[in-house]
Each structure stands twice: as structure tokens, then as C-alpha cells.
Amino acid sequence: MFGSCENAVKEGFEIRDDGFKHCGYCGSINPIELAELIEAGNATIGGSDWKYGWPHKFYVDVVNSHPDKQVLKSHGNRWNTALQKYEDFKEYGPEGPTLHIKFYSEHLGLLDDETFNKVASIINNACGITWEKKEGKLCYRAPCLNYQK
């Protein structure tokens, strides 16, 4: 629908069922909200995805404020022997204490310089990779290739 994260962000981040703001194109959590969650001690950045040769995606664990909320855990279809046909099924269960959210680092590059400096500093400390803007482009420094904190 949007064609890029930049276009989606211009339209504004959408609030999803988890209560957080996400990019309508890639699903990334809003970097400002992520920084706020990290500062409050409610989020940690786990591993990063280096599939494209750079840390383009991070996995974030967020404290769930509604761990008992019932959510869809699995769905599909299975064979009913008695009826001799496949039937759709859905299984629900509690969401749990932690939400698993993704953050795409390209969203840092879409921030204005002042906001970038504040947000990148927080994310740098959380993930162990230094993010900078040079000549308007997002750059990183990692301790080594495929670095994971």
C-alpha cells in the first residue's frame, strides 16, 4: 500500500493490537517509542539480523502490561476422522509476560537530526552498535561483523 517505510511514516505510525506504534509498511516499532520503552526499563534489544550484510533488523522484548489477554496461538485445519473431512481450528491462550516486536534500523535514518541524536544514543547503548548520520545517510559501527549483544 505505501511502497516504502518513508511513505508509511509520512502517513503516521499505526497503533496495533499490542498497543504500540508500528510502521504500516514493514511493521517496525516506532524508534521514539522504542527508546522510551528502553529508558523506562520495559524493553530490551536482543539479537540483530545481518541478512543483508548490516544490522538492518533487531528483535525487541517488551514487558507486556496485559499478560493474561487471550490471543490466537495457532490456527489451521486438521483431519476429523469421525467426519472424514478437514476442519478449521483456532487455539487461544494467554499472551504471556513478554511481547516480541521487531525494529528496523532504517527508521533511525528517517528521524530529524535532533530526534535522531536523542533516540540513537539510547538505542546505541541498548544494542551495542553505534548509529550515526553522515551526510544524511544512516551509518553504523559494530564491534565485529554479525555482532550480537
Question: Can you offer a commentary on this structure?
Answer:
- Helices cover 21% and strands 38% of the residues.
- Strand 1 (14-15) and strand 2 (21-22) form a beta hairpin.
- The protein has a domain at 5-64 and 97-139.
- The protein is built from 3 helices and 9 strands.
- It has a 3-stranded antiparallel sheet with strand order 3-4-7. Strands 1-2 form a two-stranded antiparallel ribbon.
- The protein has helices at 5-11, 31-39, 113-127; strands spanning 14-15, 21-22, 43-49, 57-63, 70-80, 85-94, 98-104, 130-134, 137-141.
- The protein has 149 residues and is an alpha+beta fold.
- The relative contact order is 0.18.
- The two termini are 34 Å apart.
Per DSSP, what share of the residues sits in E-state strands of 2 or more residues?
35-45%
Uncertain runs with pLDDT below 50, 5 residues or more?
Answer: none
Helical proportion? 10-25%
Main β sheet profile:
3 strands, antiparallel
Number of strands: 9
End-to-end distance, in Å?
34 Å
The average pLDDT is 90
Written as H for each helix and E for each strand, in order along the chain, the element string is: HEEHEEEEEHEE
Instruction: State the shape.
Output: elongated
- Secondary structure class reads alpha+beta
The radius of gyration is 19 Å
Strand order of the largest sheet: 3-4-7
Tally of separate helices: 3
Summarize the helices and strands and which ones pair or pack.
Elements: H1 5-11, E1 14-15, E2 21-22, H2 31-39, E3 43-49, E4 57-63, E5 70-80, E6 85-94, E7 98-104, H3 113-127, E8 130-134, E9 137-141
Antiparallel strand pairs: 1-2, 3-4, 4-7, 5-6, 8-9
